[in-house]
Here is the input.
Amino acid sequence: MDELDRERKLELVKKHINSYPDFPKEGILFRDIFSVFNDQTASEVLQELIADHVKSIEKSVDAVIGLESRGFLFGPQIANTLSVPFIPIRKKGKLPGELVRIEYSLEYGKDVIELQKDSLCGKSSVLIVDDLLATGGTMKAACDLIKSCGVDVAECFVIMELSGLGGKSKIPAPFHSLICYD
Ligand SMILES: O=P(O)(O)OC[C@H]1O[C@H](OP(=O)(O)OP(=O)(O)O)[C@H](O)[C@@H]1O
Ligand SMILES: Nc1ncnc2[nH]cnc12
Here is the structure.
């Protein structure tokens, strides 16, 4: 895909991301990735852009980690593109079996994310995917959790980045976004 083609495709996808002021609370401009899937062309173009990017990652990737819940929309597809397994990180209390977990700070209060203990066996480097980076708290916690298991994070990849919140600077790994909102 040449650069012009890529720019046109990104514009098309961006056009289909609906934005909702004051959702879920006052002051938040909510960027709704689901609206892209409501347009078949935009949805296919997004898949192409994602595949193009992940195939260009130079570091080796042994698994794709998706963050609940909107990371699950992209993780399995990316894992298939790279011919590696998909592994979920979920919010507390959702995964069965033996788990590793990490607590992290939200805008108000704290939360916990969890990973199945055996899921990283034999993996040395992973790609983490989510739909959006805002404050970066969720992605940073995921990186810290993976690294605490002795596994490297080859890249953190999101479709949308809210750059005004400065989340990228918190991420202790290479970071890439397809669409950046100021
Ligand atoms: O960079 P941060 O400030 O941590 O925010 C980003 C996270 O917030 C959203 O998920 P949310 O917690 O709304 O959960 P959901 O995907 O289950 O709706 C988004 O999908 C990211 O996972
Ligand atoms: N502005 C936003 N839009 C969509 N999801 C989000 N998660 C955190 N902030 C968000």
Summary: The chain has one domain: 3-181. The mean pLDDT is 97. Residues 40-55 form the longest helix (16 residues).
